[in-house]
Design a protein that fits this description.
By secondary structure, this protein is α+β, with helices and mostly antiparallel strands. It has a domain of about 230 residues: FAD/NAD(P)-binding domain. Helices cover about 35% and strands about 25% of the residues. It is built from 12 helices and 22 strands. The strands form 5 sheets. A 7-stranded mixed sheet has the order 6-5-15-16-17-14-18. The protein has a 6-stranded mixed sheet with strand order 8-2-1-12-21-20. Strands 3-7-4 form a 3-stranded antiparallel sheet. Helix 8 runs antiparallel to helix 9 and helix 9 runs antiparallel to helix 12. The chain is globular, with a radius of gyration of 21 Å. The two termini are about 35 Å apart. The relative contact order is 0.16. The model has no long low-confidence stretch (mean pLDDT about 95). The protein binds flavin-adenine dinucleotide (FAD).
Length: about 400
């Protein structure tokens, strides 16, 4: 692309691709750099929440997600020994959203849908095997130094958006911190085709236990016939080899759902878990969105969704600046709106989710279960609770910040 009149994006994960499609739809030229040669397929996000489905509706992405994913009208909160504690029916949100459900679809499939949708547009380039090394800026634009298969090259654009994940090189090039903490334990993700549905599990289940809690989800998998993912906390001292050991994996799964024979395992993945938010999402022409701006534990399935919401907020403001000559102060508003809710909702809720599911004090655990039972027994409480955990309240709060 010859012209510097464009926006640069670093990182083609779900947030980078969403930013790309949004800019294309706003008729803003862009160049997207991606370090890898293709979309990663490791088992990460699978849950898509109602506001995300609303935002993707006009581009037709939601329709594709509905076609390819599983519609999840309810989810269970369970105790490993007591069984179901609360069944959350999302239908109560029918007057709050046209999509009162979750969709389960692997994040790499969302990225593939976005890449496919981009084919309807021109005036952009996506450069795989291009790793951003550093980002700088001057009075006229943002400058990216990029390692390419032909050596290091420099690219210029009006703005550079860092969508390059938790270890964001754009963020490291900015004068901002990434404050928060890293949990001692890592999370182990396993997947199997065994059908847990036959034992009464919902498509999404959070199973509390003081020793070994887990989260169990069904995603479409390789052939759309289903793959169950199980997420466990991993012992802090154990090596990856010990955690991936077949007998230890079988013991863990048999521990919450005993069956004859062994479970056939398709994925074994280990993730470090952090709770961090960048101290600012904007420095002049350099901007952050998605995991580059905030990272959190995956309980509640919020991290990617939150990053997608960043992208919609940011690109709408960039379009006003680009086409209508609006003030670049809008980018500070982006920072205020999205960073505030990252702290107030994303961090608070996901930390709370982890503390509740692993609660060791029996009295506190029972009190929490009583609270959940009271919520599901009262339609007003249920609606208000689900507005928060289905991420609708966070969007409303973000939009209310001026
Ligand atoms: C086990 C697990 C389960 C999860 N479940 C959920 C869930 O159900 N729902 C949910 O909302 N979230 C979930 N998440 C979180 C979700 O996976 C992340 O929030 C999401 O991947 C963030 O997307 P992103 O595009 O910001 O970053 P990433 O997906 O990390 O993408 C960043 C991209 O940038 C590229 N990149 C990195 N550095 C450079 C560079 N220097 N130059 C160029 N390219 C670069 C990378 O190669 C990558 O393609 C889960 C996470 C885990 C670990």
């Amino acid at each position: 692309m010859a012209s510097d009149k464009r926006i640069l994006i670093s990182g083609a994960g779900p947030v980078g691709y969403t930013t790309a499609l949004n800019l294309a739809r706003y008729n803003i030229p862009f160049t997207l750099f991606e370090a890898a040669s293709d979309i990663f397929e490791d088992p990460r996000a699978g849950t898509i929440h109602p506001p995300t489905l609303e935002m993707f509706e006009p581009s037709g992405v939601t329709q594709k997600m509905l076609e390819q994913g599983y519609l999840v009208p309810n989810y269970h909160y369970r105790d490993r020994t007591q069984g179901i504690v609360a069944n959350f029916e999302l239908g109560i949100l029918k007057n709050d959203t046209p999509h009162p459900y979750r969709i389960m679809l692997e994040q790499h499939k969302l990225s593939a849908i976005l890449r496919e949708k981009l084919k309807a547009y021109s005036n952009y380039e996506i450069l795989n095997n291009h790793r951003l090394l550093s980002a700088t800026q001057d009075a006229d634009g943002a400058i990216a130094s990029v390692e390419t298969p032909q050596g290091t090259k420099t690219f210029r654009g009006d703005y550079l958006i860092g969508c390059d994940g938790g270890r964001s090189q754009v963020r490291k090039s900015m004068n901002v911190g990434f404050e928060g903490f890293t949990w001692a334990e890592r999370f182990l993700v396993l997947s199997t085709r065994y059908d847990f549905g036959q034992h009464g599990y919902a498509l999404t289940n959070y199973i509390a236990d003081p020793e070994e809690w887990c989260a169990l989800f069904k995603v479409p998998g390789y052939d759309g016939k289903g793959l169950w993912r199980i997420l466990f906390p991993a012992d802090t001292e154990a090596t990856q080899e010990e955690l991936f050991d077949e007998s230890s994996i079988q013991r863990r799964i048999q521990g919450f759902q005993a069956k004859t024979g062994t479970y056939e395992i398709y994925h074994r993945n280990l993730y470090e878990v952090h709770q961090r938010v960048a101290t600012c999402y904007r420095e002049g022409r350099l901007l952050l969105a998605g995991d580059a701006a905030h990272i959190n534990n995956p309980l509640g399935g919020m991290g990617m969704n939150f990053g997608l919401h960043d992208s919609f907020n940011l690109t709408e403001k960039l379009a006003k600046i680009w086409h209508e000559g609006a003030s670049t102060d809008l980018l500070d508003l982006y920072d205020r709106q999205r960073r505030t809710v990252a702290q107030e909702y994303l961090q608070r809720q996901t930390i709370e989710n982890k503390k509740n599911i692993e609660q060791k004090d029996p009295a506190a655990r029972e009190a929490f279960y009583e609270e959940l039972r009271a919520i599901t027994a009262d339609p007003d409480k249920l609606r208000s609770y689900l507005l928060r955990v289905a991420m609708i309240e966070g969007i409303r709060r973000s939009n209310s910040i001026t």
